[in-house]
Amino acid sequence: MFFDQIKEVEQSIKQLQKDLIAIGEGVDGHYDQLDDIAAHVIALEAIMIEVMKKTEVDADAVKAWIVAATEGSTGQEGGSTKAQVIVDNLLQGDPVPERKD
Q: N- or C-end of the chain: fewer Cβ atoms within 10 A?
């Protein structure tokens, strides 16, 4: 009986090892996807900064659109403040918002 329990524990450990490997592979796949998304966002920001140097942009209209688009999903009156900070930074030619701790 004792050896049967040891065998069960051994099988459980082997299954746990397989599960952890599968989780690790899944995380790696998600990381690659996030990295691709980040690269696209950076490229779009670079293009937008160059376009905005040549085209006047109404920051208030852009922020109003953000409020309308994000108020419901954020549950906050005024919508995503982070997106609005990013608008200001992009309009200044700085794609990296300042962190406020």
A: C
